[in-house]
Amino acid sequence: QVQLVESGGGLVQPGGSLRLSCAASGRIFGINAMRWYRQAPGKQRELVAVITSGGITNYAESVKGRFTISRDDAKRTVYLQMNSLKPEDTAMYYCNVLSADNYWGQGTQVTVSS
């Protein structure tokens, strides 16, 4: 059984930083794209960042220049470094891994507030 376990969320003041991690375990092979999504209360889930198996990255306009996605294939882990956080970044963050199937993590809460 494949599991994605996220960590690194929490409460941070505006302007602060957090680093999210998402580690895949179980029988998962041939990981292609790895993505981070977020969903704020009352809003639709939105794509935040994606990294392909070749290391190509893409970001939502709202996080460009502040967030960085990376991956460690040996550890089957994807990261999201979030800097200069704003209150509007407050949301539940989910990782998504595409291989033969599409897998989702359980989410980790990020709250940006003074």
Distance between the termini: 40 Å
**Rg over C-alpha atoms, rounded to the nearest angstrom:** 13 Å
Largest sheet: 7 strands, mixed
Mean pLDDT: 95
Question: What fraction of residues sit in β-strands?
Answer: over 45%
- Helicity, as a percent range: under 10%
Number of helices: 0
Q: Write down how many β-strands occur, each being a DSSP E stretch of 2 or more residues.
A: 11
Descriptors:
114 residues; mainly beta; four-stranded antiparallel sheet; 0% helix; 52% strand; globular
Précis, in short:
The protein has 114 residues and is mainly beta. It has strands spanning 3-7, 10-12, 18-25, 34-39, 46-51, 57-59, 67-72, 77-82, 91-98, 102-104, 108-112.
Give a verbal description of the structure.
Strand 9 (91-98) and strand 10 (102-104) form a beta hairpin. Helix content is 0%, strand content 52%. Strands 2, 4, 5, 6, 9, 10 and 11 form a 7-stranded mixed beta sheet that branches. The protein is mostly beta strands and 114 residues long. The protein has strands at 3-7, 10-12, 18-25, 34-39, 46-51, 57-59, 67-72, 77-82, 91-98, 102-104, 108-112.
